[in-house]
Specification:
- It is built from 1 helix and 11 strands.
- By secondary structure, it is mainly β.
- The protein is flat, with a radius of gyration of 22 Å.
- Strands 1-11-6-7 form a 4-stranded antiparallel β-sheet, with no helix packed on it.
- Helices cover 11% and strands 56% of the residues.
Length: 169
């Protein structure tokens, strides 16, 4: 019985722990999160029908501006290096359906710094050729920088997007 209680309460505690730092944000509002100004804006609204039900389709925009004097950097030390923690903030639309391959959230990530790398190699005929390829050298978010992204949320008809924002840093 103790194991069953634990198994039932564990997902609830995890969900609460993830959302405890989330804040509600509405259209046109800017929220300050640890020196980052996050803005959410509804750009367009239209009604659509899918599977015999009516929905409202919202095109939305989100931006984050670094208002602090702190720079965020991830320098890569070797290639290939897999980096998965480049997200700054996540905006989650709680009532989005995800229908028609639309979004349920927007994740604003750090900018990638590309470096051109020149290398030499032999081709099939044995001739030495030199080529240049772009490689990601680091990820950054400097003071004063702004990052934008757009998404489409489909919500039940008559509802506005119910959006919460949380910092990932």
């Amino acid at each position: 019985m103790k194991n069953l209680t634990f198994l039932l309460l564990f997902p609830v505690v995890i969900f609460w722990g993830i959302n405890v730092h989330a804040q509600k944000i509405s259209d046109g509002q800017t929220v300050d999160m640890n020196g980052m100004a996050v803005t959410f804006t509804i750009l367009n609204k239209e009604s659509v029908e899918s599977g015999g039900k009516s929905y409202d389709r919202y095109k939305v925009s989100a931006s984050v501006k670094n208002t602090s004097d702190k720079a965020y950097n991830i320098r890569l030390s070797a290639f290939p290096q897999i980096v998965s923690n480049i997200g700054l903030v996540e905006l989650d639309c709680i009532n989005a359906t995800g229908a028609r391959l639309t979004s349920k959230k927007i994740e604003l990530k750090m900018k990638a710094q590309m470096i051109n790398v020149t290398y030499s190699a032999y081709d099939k005929s044995g001739k030495l050729i030199t080529s240049t390829i772009p490689v990601t050298g680091s990820y950054y978010f400097d003071p004063g920088d702004t990052i934008n992204d757009n998404a489409i949320f489909i919500v039940p008809q008559g509802e506005k997007p119910d959006v919460s924002v949380r910092s990932m840093k």
